[in-house]
Input
Amino acid sequence: MKEYLMRIMVTNFSLSRGSCEKEISYFFLFLGLEEIEPTSVEEYLNLESEKDVKRITMELLTKLSKQFNSNFQKLTNYQELADGLTMINRRWLVYHFRESSFILKVQLKYFQEVNPRFEQFVRTFIGNLDDALFESTQEKNKLYYDYLFFLITKIPVEELEEPIYVCIDFSHGKSYNDYIRMMLLTLKSMHIVYEESISSMTQIYLSDFALEELICEQMIWKRPPTPDDWEEFGELLLKVRGVDHE
Output
């Protein structure tokens, strides 16, 4: 395929063989990044920017492992993680893909609260990259989102966050406790360990009655929880995890 395209371009266009090879490389790389024909990408990666792509990907993975004190190579989806970051870096370094997205203060605040370690890591990593690699501030913003969303979806929260131990103990019985626990499963960005009885690890006691002299946090719901109750519980989780949500 490559030689065929090369002959066509050299014959029909006033381009050198080297220029034709670059054009073909850009074309197939574009198809790969857009997932039109991803299997063809590796054969045509002779672009100068590929060195930066590989270097930045390895630098990100190395710093990720060091900061979180975790060997991400042990993850079953490590290759998918590495390949995905490589593709993000190619989009940015080769084509400088960007959208009109931008970071609002409220959006930053959300990620800083819900995914604080990821958010800080991504923001610091991008901040330490050479400004000469970027064409605009908008490009940095797009890369921020690309990195953040990709890492959040690919790396289990259990690999990053210390667990918060929550004891669910309502007087309505096991079925009601299971219902509350099921509702709390929506908080997937939090690493929560649920307990059926109080232990030395318990950090939050969630019930419809208070216990005296309990040293952990207590949240008392006398009725089925309302949206305000859930919001208050979310703030308590942030408090226990030590995140300033003011």
Q: What stands out?
A: The chain has a mean pLDDT of 79. The first strand starts at residue 164 and ends at 169.
